[in-house]
Design goal:
single chain, mainly alpha, 15 helices
Length: 324
């Protein structure tokens, strides 16, 4: 998954002044943004659950490829009606490499999340995917020479302690590597999110989604054909429902971040942990052990603090205003 968080917001309409000092947001807008992002992550969790069910008959690569094709089939008529303006905006030698990078890591995160959910617990896969806010500052330090505060290091430490409690590295990890795969999904999604921050400066949400689906469909085709299994009507229904959930998630996320800033409502992405726990319990008879539950709480706490403390994520790529 693609766990696409503030990924789909567009910053191109914001002035340098607004980026440096965000305007106050009315309480009603905050509530609306929080509600939209919560419902969006419910759709994302349902998507993961459908992928888990579908893997009883088809592989994660085949599932993901069919989902991408279905979503693309919905958006392409919209783009034709718009006379291809969103695709034309991305035909730029400076932008296309970022689109490719985003597709590679976004698909990796999506694939690993679906795979982890199929091999193990839905809630564990979801929690480990949500390590993204913890990984982002660490990647910033390693790859971008970014300085982060002591408080943010503390939030990262809390998250990583929780991560160890959930993954519980031991000999069993190699026999059933579901948690390790889920951790890879969170790391991949973090790289994707950093890439999307750059794309957001010039590209619309529809452009980003279309290029993600187009590049993703091409990249996943060999994997899907290699894993190909006959698909029955029930499984096809799960894929169609997952594609609808995917597009719903993207739409609601875009809308949510038009009403509030990421640091104000980003914490609501952790509602997906509650949703996955309920769905896992009701439909898959999944009940995490006590150690894993403590780890999930710590990951959620560390990630929420990281989102709050990193209040201006676009500063990583945005040039400082030159002034007038």
């Amino acid at each position: 998954m693609q766990k696409l968080s503030p990924n789909m917001t567009s910053d191109s309409s914001r002035s340098p002044t607004a980026s440096a000092e965000p305007p106050s947001v009315p309480d009603q807008s905050l509530l609306l943004g929080a509600g939209l992002i919560t419902v969006g992550f419910l759709a994302n969790t349902i998507q993961g659950a459908l992928g888990k069910v579908a893997q009883a008959t088809i592989g994660p690569g085949q599932f993901l490829w069919l989902l991408l094709l279905l979503a693309l089939g919905v958006l392409l008529p919209v783009e034709i009606w718009r006379r291809g303006r969103d695709l034309q905006a991305g035909l730029n030698a400076q932008v296309l490499p970022y689109y490719l990078l985003r597709a590679v890591f976004g698909l990796s995160g999506f694939y690993l999340f679906i795979w982890a959910a199929g091999l193990g617990s839905l809630v564990s896969a979801n929690v480990l995917l949500n390590t993204t806010p913890i990984f982002i500052p660490v990647i910033g330090v390693i790859a971008l020479n970014k300085q982060i505060s002591l408080k943010l290091w503390g939030a990262i430490a809390v998250g990583f302690i929780g991560l160890l409690l959930v993954v519980q590295p031991n000999a069993d990890l190699l026999r059933n590597p579901a948690n390790l795969i889920g951790l890879g999904a969170g790391l991949s999604a973090a790289v994707e999110f950093l890439t999307v921050r750059r794309i957001n400066q010039t590209q619309s949400p529809l452009s980003q989604t279309l290029y993600y689906l187009l590049i993703g469909s091409a990249l996943m085709a060999p994997v899907a054909l290699w894993q190909w299994q006959p698909i029955d009507r029930a499984t096809l229904g799960y894929v169609v429902a997952a594609a609808a959930a995917f597009l719903t998630f993207q739409l609601l996320l875009v809308k949510a971040y038009r009403y509030a800033e990421p640091h104000q409502i980003g914490v609501f992405q952790y509602s997906s942990v509650i949703f996955s726990a309920v769905i896992g319990w009701l439909f898959f008879d999944e009940i995490p052990n006590g150690v894993s539950l403590i780890g999930m709480v710590l990951i959620t706490l560390g990630g929420a603090l990281a989102i709050y403390l990193e209040q201006k994520p676009q500063a990583d790529f945005t040039e400082e205003p030159t002034g007038t």
